[in-house]
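ESCALATION

Customer reports they have been waiting on this structure for their group meeting. Please prioritize. Original submission:
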Amino acid sequence: MKFKKIILAAIIVIAAQSTYAQYLGDALRFSQLQNSNTARFEALGGSKTAIGGDLSSLYGNPAGIGMFTKSEFSFTPSLRLRSNDISLSNTSSTSSNIDLNNVGVVFNTKTYKTKDLDKGLISLSFGIGYQKKGSFRNDFNYGLTTNQNGLGDLFAETATSENQSQANLGSQVNGAAYDSFLINDRGTNTTVYDPITSLTADQLQLVNRTGGSSSVDFSLGANISNQFFLGGSIGLSSFRYSSIEKTNEVGLFRQPGTTNDFDYDVDYTRNFDTNGSGINLKLGAIVRPSKEFRLGVSIESPTWYSVTDNYSETLYNNLDPIEGTDSYPFDYSLRTPLKFNGGLAYFFGSKGFISADIGYEDYSTINFSSSDSQTDITTNRNIKSQFKNVSNYNIGTEYKVTDKFLLRAGYQSLGNPYKTLNNSDYTVNSYSAGFGYRFGTYYLDMAYVNSSDFSTYSNYVLTGNNQPTTNLNTKRNNVSLTFGVRF
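Update from on-call: job pushed to the front of the queue and completed.
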């Protein structure tokens, strides 16, 4: 097992970003998860810290459920549409899925009073809800031509890093690369390997990612004199991330000791299967100094995750019965950043409001810990050097056209978590709009959200950082509906 860990340290490669080690990429991926919203607050750009009175408060500022005057139930399904523009091949791909954003209920109870009904503790509200905090789903594929940066170059590096002769290679994948004539030892030094594939080859990259993160939240809110609203919640979170990332490479290799060239056709596949579960806490307050103004603050503790990671890689020769697979099961703990949010809302009488939030979190405070001290030191050092603090912004407005029909619009900006990375901006901007309709004790809300984000991708990394890498511009269009009832 110890030898396998040494091999793992030598050959494990990136999970999602072209210059990041697997655990560094995962640490950020599982720390960027955002709390869910009903369709109403989706349309408002997620601006909810100072508003309250909506099931979104279950997942954001729990003080908001203190504003409920009745009990309420709602659920929110959504349709997610994705398109990827791939720079390396100048192509695009699309995918879609249906999700349940959230479902929750709040029970409101008035406190028993015999004197002033508008002073002191007026009511308590208890809520429980399920939320989908993030979806990892994405599919894309593209073709390219290598230039001295193909699979032969990769396995020459990983086999050389073992410092073993061919008969003693610990990695089955490196052994399969040798047997498939992608690499050969130098002869004069049998522990150093060189690629024997042609300088150029045709590659097809195929990526299929699935999974997501969810949480069950238990919240308690209090209404004090209709001016102060306090709340707290406990969230039980979990996630599942799966990714199959395959490189098919077709080209020519030269048989050692001859001038004869032969075809080769191999598949190099990396399989990621990661599961985690954790817990977090939220505290919040909303102050209503006047009928027009509301001020809100909330703090969300880190989520303390226990994570099981099952990573494996396989090299399969499509022309000969040669296959090699290496597996690297690994358990670790992950602590995500502390989050602060502040919000301000101004109400235009009974006709509507405008609301704005600002949030702060420091991704350099992510903490990774396991039974492997060297992996911990390296990962945490890279977290501090690569990530930084961010400010997130939300703004939204709602206008009541009639007593039953409402219009909404919003904007959200999630800050770039990287200090420097390819001089690219990884800020995520979202634009939203929607409407609401009230009929008796029932209501229906709809939201449309358009967002785009930038990332880079490569299925493997070379020491010279010249592996085939593409830019991905992912556009997302989400439509969500919330159906609710007050009782």
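Sent to customer with the following note: Residues 232 and 283 are 4 Å apart (CA to CA).
Escalation resolved.
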